[in-house]
Write a structure and sequence with these properties.
The protein is mainly alpha-helical and 123 residues long. The chain is 66% helix and 11% strand. The chain starts with 7 loop residues before the first helix and ends with a helix.
Length: 123
């Protein structure tokens, strides 16, 4: 995993912060504890790694930190999508689309939507 890629656990932390705009470690722990059972140290470690990777920034507030994203969810997804495309398909979007149409369980509605997008791009 490169320095900017994030793990599934880090992604879950980011989803909480993106949904709240900014959050303290306690906010993230409260949001994730019921579904993950992660302890305080686990969440704090994940937050620290996201700060180290330059994905989160912190600001002090009284005796704790507030974490906020450096990129919106949409910006991050766009960046990760480009990285994924480059790593797995050498930047070839055609190969990616063919792979997902053939290997994914694509329903007729999705195929129709893809055809509509293709037709729009041809114009």
């Amino acid at each position: 995993m490169s320095n900017n890629e994030i793990s599934e656990a880090q992604w879950r932390v980011m989803e909480v912060i993106w949904s709240q705009g900014e959050a303290s470690a306690a906010d993230v722990i409260d949001a994730l504890l019921p579904e993950t059972g992660w302890n305080h140290q686990t969440v704090r470690t994940l937050l620290a790694r996201l700060v180290q990777k330059g994905i989160l920034q912190t600001r002090p507030k009284r005796n704790f930190y507030i974490y906020s994203p450096l990129l919106s969810r949409e910006e991050f997804v766009r960046k990760e999508s480009r990285s994924f495309l480059q790593r797995l398909f050498h930047g070839n979007a055609d190969a990616l689309l063919v792979h997902f149409v053939r290997e994914g369980n694509v329903n007729q509605e999705t195929l129709d939507r893809l055809q509509q997008l293709i037709n729009e791009e041809k114009k």
